[in-house]
Amino acid sequence: MIGIKSIASYVPAQGLDNYAQGAKFAKDEEFILGKIGSAFLPRKADEQETSDLCVEAANVLFASNPQLSRDAIDALIVVTQNGDEEGLPHTAAIVQHKLGLPTHVAAFDISLGCSGYVYGIYALKGFMEAAGLKNGLLITADPYSKIVDPEDRNTTMLFGDAATATWMGEDAAWTLGKAKFGTDGAGAPHLKVSDGVFFMNGRQVFNFALLKVPAHLHELLGESSLQPGDIDAFCIHQGSAAIVDAVARRFEDDPSKFIKDMLETGNTVSSSIPLLLEKHVLGSDFKRVALSGFGVGLSWGSAIIQRAGQ
């Protein structure tokens, strides 16, 4: 059974001081930490492309797992909506070449944002099991710095650049349980790019998350014959401190189980959930964790992962 074996990440060291940005827009520390949740927003270098961020994260993964050779990779998925140049060719092909992966690898992109990691792990698992593949990489990289207007107070204080690489294969420490997904294209105008610039209707996105995510998680638990107490931690997309806090309160169980960690990263889009897993879950004593990603589309996906043998 294919599951999650290891996760590594790359977060650029350079970036933006959100306090300085806050002063520019007359936002105080209480707003920056309480609503936004991020004091620092990492930014890729001007010369770095999305594929370069992918390669950085993957190289950390290989260095951390010397038993995994590049020649052993059978499949590569890159989750991004901001690929190299103008999106053709697909970023995964560029990453395959830069990483020196074998040419027999299946490599393709998934064009999803904040829900992309949950979709991605299930897409890769299903693809690998259907084709009899052994080792796959799921890489997330969505540098919104390429599309955010630095003068737009609704977006420039939220997003940070980062990339993650997840090794999926057999005999994994974490297995994938039940998942649920959803799409409502009627909400597409609330998160979109026009003429190369990102637009977000923050109030509508907040309302969407608050109404959809807690209910979706309860549905997932019910269909899995689980109670909230059976879940050790909830790793949901780190859209903002306000969104994570509001979803945790609306869930009405134990808000402290909802992990919040975006102070030095900001909203990293498809990378936010794997960043939480890498830092807070893989090395923990947790046995069962719920995930939920939500955003552009509008789209959402929730899932339960558990330690092998549970």
UniProtKB/TrEMBL annotation:
InterPro entries: ACP_syn_III_C (IPR013747), ACP_syn_III_N (IPR013751), Thiolase-like (IPR016039)
Domain Beta-ketoacyl-[acyl-carrier-protein] synthase III N-terminal positions: 108-185
Domain called Beta-ketoacyl-[acyl-carrier-protein] synthase III C-terminal: residue spans: 223-306
Presence of the UniProt keyword Acyltransferase in the record: yes
Alphabetical UniProt keywords: Acyltransferase, Transferase
GO terms assigned for molecular function: 3-oxoacyl-[acyl-carrier-protein] synthase activity
GO biological process, any: secondary metabolite biosynthetic process
Name under which the protein is recorded: Ketoacyl-ACP synthase III
